[in-house]
Amino acid sequence: MAQDATVPKLNFGYWLDKAVEWGQATTLESQKDVCLHLPQLQEFLHQLYETIKHSGSTVAIQQFPLIGQLLGRLCWNPFVIGYDESQKTLMWCLCCLYSSEPQNAVELKANSWIRSLLCHLLSSSKWESNEAEISTFVSALGYTSADYYCHLVKNMVVSLVTELRENQFNGLNIQGSISASRVNAVSIFCVPLITLPDLTPLLETLLLYHGGSSKEILCSEFLEAVNEAFLKKKISLPESAVFSLWLRHLPRLEKATLHLLDQLFSIQLHSLEEVACVMKDSLLPQAASHPPIFRIVNEIFKNALMETDGSSGVMTIIQVFTQLFLQAHQNENKQHKFPLKAYFPYHHQPLVRGLVRRPFELPTTYWSQHLKHISDMLKALVEDTNVSSLTDLFEIWFLVACFGEWMDIAAEQLLKAAVEPDAVLWLLAFYYCPKNENQQRTQTVVEAQAVYNHLMMLFSCTDLSLKDLEPATHRITGIEQCWNQHLTTHLLTNFLLFSPSGHKIAQECIYHITKTTDTSEEVYNLLIRTAYRFNHSGEGDQRTVKLLNELLQKLTLKV
Question: What Gene Ontology biological process does one annotation of this record name (predicted)?
Answer without folding.
Answer: interstrand cross-link repair
